[in-house]
Design brief:
By secondary structure, the protein is α/β, with parallel strands linked by helices. It has a single domain, classed as 3-Layer(aba) Sandwich (Rossmann fold). The chain has nine helices and seven strands; from the N terminus they run βαβαβαβαβαβαααβα. The protein has a seven-stranded parallel sheet with strand order 3-2-1-4-5-6-7, with helices on both faces. Helix 2 links the parallel strand 2 and strand 3. Helix 1 packs across helix 8, helix 3 runs parallel beside helix 4 and helix 4 runs parallel beside helix 5. The chain is globular, with a radius of gyration of 18 Å. 45% of the residues are buried. Bound molecules: NADP nicotinamide-adenine-dinucleotide phosphate (NAP). The site of NADP nicotinamide-adenine-dinucleotide phosphate has 26 residues, from helix 1.
């Protein structure tokens, strides 16, 4: 069940965090994997891990906000493996310099976040679809923030919501080509970016507060996302398209929002008071 043997999977942002987890889960399920991202040494390390598992891997240094780089991922993947069966649009984030309250948001902060998480994510999906001459599965990693308020990075939530909307349109327009398009919307997943010094979850107290908002009482692991992607890439998911799969340990259930708001209020003002204007 859920074997990806004989399939080729491309993962953008595959060098670390959730993308690395997805890449390794895909390889464990039998796929050959193309890992793409901006940091070549991280990509090479993941490719080596995959090769140790007995699968083939190609590392492609690419910035998905550059059209030529997107084309190079397609070229290198098809050159190495002949075909792309699954493309995971995982590259994305909001840089700390772009985090802030909507009242203070600048156009350049909007552009960086929305361009990466919506515009270029869409054009990567378009490039993947054009290359999928035998059909395939496109998976967009969105976020719980795409269907909830996302205080302190509102433009990130809006971009993820945009991709979730486009997921449905892509599914409708490309279904007759045998191309399925789905999104996976995680809640908080523990990665090295979060736990590094100065990261959002570098303090155990912050982790604990997050856990208190999750009915299943743990943060997500990168494999939680990877395993859902394996399913969506597999033939067993061949009648699923246009969907957004929520992957949150239950934290999208609205009751969690109240607890989350305490956390947000604290970050806005430092002491729980209203933010200064
Ligand atoms: N972690 C969470 O709690 C969480 C929750 C919901 C959704 N998500 C989503 O899950 C995805 C992965 O998140 P993460 O937490 O693993 O993030 P991360 O640790 O910050 O990793 C981001 C990945 O994207 C790559 N990347 C960033 N900009 C890129 C660009 N312009 N071109 C190519 N690659 C780029 C990075 O590699 P390079 O820097 O080497 O290019 C890195 O591999 C993102 O779409 C994020 O929005 C994460």
């Amino acid at each position: 069940m859920f074997s990806l043997e004989g399939k080729t999977v491309v993962v953008t942002g595959g060098g670390r965090g959730i993308g690395k987890g997805i890449s390794l889960c895909m390889a464990k399920a039998g796929a050959d994997v193309v890992v793409a991202g901006r940091t070549l040494e991280l990509l090479k390390a993941v490719a080596q891990e995959i090769e140790k598992m007995g699968r083939k891997a190609v590392a492609v240094q690419a910035d998905i906000t550059k059209p030529d780089d997107i084309q190079r991922i397609v070229h290198d993947a098809t050159h190495a493996f002949g075909n792309i069966d699954c493309w995971v649009n995982n590259a994305g984030s909001a840089d700390p310099k772009d985090v802030g309250a909507l009242m203070d948001l600048r156009p350049d902060q909007w552009d960086r976040v929305v361009d990466l998480n919506m515009k270029w994510t869409f054009f990567a999906a378009q490039a993947a679809a054009r290359a999928m001459t035998k059909g395939g599965s496109i998976i967009n990693i969105t976020s719980r923030s795409g269907s909830q308020p996302n205080p302190m990075t509102g433009q990130y939530g809006a971009a993820k919501a945009g991709i979730e909307n486009l997921t449905a349109t892509m599914a409708v327009e490309w279904g007759h080509l045998g191309i399925r398009v789905n999104s996976v919307a995680p809640g908080v997943v523990l990665t090295e970016t979060f736990t590094a010094p100065g990261g959002t979850l570098s303090k155990p107290s912050r982790i604990q507060r997050q856990i208190e908002t999750i009915p299943l009482r743990r943060l997500g692991a990168v494999e939680d996302v990877g395993n859902v992607c394996v399913f969506l890439a597999s033939d067993e998911a061949s009648w699923i398209t246009g969907e957004v799969i929520q992957l949150t340990g239950g934290s999208r259930i609205p009751v969690g929002l109240l607890t989350y708001l305490h956390h947000v209020n604290e970050r806005l003002s430092g002491d729980g008071k209203k933010p200064e204007r």
